[in-house]
Predict the structure.
Amino acid sequence: MENSTFDEVLTAAQSLPPESRRRLGEELLASLNSESPGDKINELNRQLLEAGLLSEIRKPAKKSAPFAPVTVIGQPVSETIIEERR
């Protein structure tokens, strides 16, 4: 959507009576919720880039491997913490 078209729609929406604005907001939220989260993030990033708030759109960071539990020899760490607080 071009900026001028967006501004026209925004101005028209702001001139609506409160009940109509509420209904419009509900419809917009429903349409956003029907999209996949990735689509919403891509659209938001595009809008932020156009507004000059982002200099570039980066790829999302890769997810790291889950942490492996550490085996502690001796008394449990929780007991050590309690003792040190006394």
